[in-house]
Amino acid sequence: MYKFRSLFKIFLCVLTALLFQTQSHSESEPLDFEKGERIAIIGNTFAERMHHYGYFETFLQGLYPDKNLIIRNLGWSADEIDLKPREDKVPVEDDWLSSLKPDTIIACFGLNESYDGIGAIPEFEERLEKYIDHLLDSNFNGKGNTQLILVSPIAYEQMSEHIPDADSRNEILETYAKAMEEVAARRGVQFIDLFTPTLPLVKESVQSGKPLTINGIHLNQLGYWHVSRLMANAFGFVEPEVGGDPEEHRKAEDLREVINEKNRQFFYRYRPLNSCYIWGQRKEP
Strand 147-151 to strand 104-108: parallel, antiparallel, or no bridges (unpaired)? Predict the structure, then answer.
């Protein structure tokens, strides 16, 4: 409990600085969001579980306070770039993207695909290139200028001796992350490398006894806080100086609470408990 109180205080300080200090911007800003920019987060369990804590989205809204960003999380556990099983008649990823009309798509993949091993890298690159072409050619926002950002998997955390060896898993994950980076460069899309900066973090977490994941691959609250910071940095911003009075801290946490509630309500629509009554055979009994 103590570590989360400390984490929470640090989060408030950093976020408050982002909200109230314009000097937090770096000299170069690779991403330029328009006012009212529509952003969709897609991908596997890493993407889906982001909505539980709201750190990344809160950082993003804090970094662009005047942009009125519209952000929706379409993550779905176990999704791969071209394998997304759904129930019959349930709207698929393209349906949601067509409805949301995102200007920017943040795509988080690579973990599930990595279980095919290093030998499958050429096939993975081919699959990824086809997926990139599909997302961009689909022109979901109708403007022909969709911005795509690929996000690599995080490093694997050795939580116990009863789960796969971290060194061998991380060797594979690093190879997939590099493959994603190379494909992104060839296709001219943005890329965020989470593997490299999280590798020392997971090694330190094992030594300190403060894990960043719940099972070696899926982040806990502390893990999402760290990774959200890394993603915010990758968006072209430097760590701000912490500060702010209690009232500013309260405003920062109020923002995260509103974002979490918004995400919760959207999740009820996106992933209802009994989709059969909404889209399936019981829709019109």
Answer: parallel
What CATH number did the domain enclosing 80 receive? 3.40.50.1110
76: in domain: yes
Task: Tell whether 283 is covered by a domain.
Answer: no
Buried-exposed string 181-219: b where 16+ CB fall within 10 A, e elsewhere? bebbeeeebbbbbbbebbbebbeebbeeeebbbeebbbb
Question: Which residue has tokens 């290093």?
Answer: 118
Please choose, from the candidates 238, 266, 242, the residue with its C-alpha nearest in 3D space to the C-alpha of residue 54: 266
Q: What is the pLDDT of residue 251?
A: 79
In this structure, which long-range contacts are made by residues 220-226, counting pairs with CB atoms below 8 Å and at least 24 apart in sequence? 221/4, 221/7, 221/52, 221/53, 222/3, 222/4, 222/7, 223/154, 224/49, 224/50, 224/52, 224/53, 224/55, 224/56, 225/7, 225/11, 225/53, 225/55, 226/198, 226/201
Can you give the pTM of this predicted structure? 0.88
- Residues paired with 105 in a beta bridge: 40, 148
Query: How far is 212 from 33, CA to CA, in rounded Å?
Result: 30
pLDDT value of residue 277: 74
Q: Which two tokens stand for residue 173?
A: 């994950």
> How many domains is the chain partitioned into structurally?
1
Is residue 285 assigned to a domain?
A: no
Q: How many CB atoms lie within 10 A of CB 225?
A: 21
Q: Which domain holds residue 216?
A: 2-277
- Contact by Cβ (8 Å): 42, 48: no
pLDDT digits (tens, 9 = 90+) for 188-203: 999 999 999 999 999 9
Q: Phi and psi dihedrals of 41, rounded to 5?
A: -105, 120
Angle between helices 221-234 and 55-63 (to 10 degrees): 30
